[in-house]
Design a protein that fits this description.
By secondary structure, the protein is of the alpha/beta class. The protein is about 45% helix and about 25% strand. It has helices at about 5-10, 20-35, 45-50, 70-80, 95-105, 115-130; strands at about 15-20, 40, 55-65, 70, 85-90, 110.
Length: about 130
Amino acid sequence: MTEISTQARRIPTHILLAHSDAVARRTLHLVLAASGYQVKAYALEGAVSRDPGISEGSCLIAEHRRPHMDGIALLLDLRARLWRRPAILLAAERSDDLKAEANAAGYAHVLQQPFAHHVLLGMVDSLVAVG
């Protein structure tokens, strides 16, 4: 485990996970939990916005696969509610336009699916370490 990983997990870190696919959501939940993170998982983007506990979230991981889940709209909504934590967008396809739109919305990373879990964990570790 890296120094960042160890440091990031000394205190409980809550991850907000928004993914429309039940199997993918459960898999990511288990991977994050096994790595020491507390995870709140949501099947619908609106459920994240309506959750009064979002302020506990240290990082958002959201899917972007319209019409099932619009991760960019979700982060813009959270930003409008003054949630300012880092975020990672999971995209089914890679495009420069999507990356530019995601970065403009406030996403730190755009990760194309499928991906190796250690890549996502490395991103989360580095983002929560810097806050």
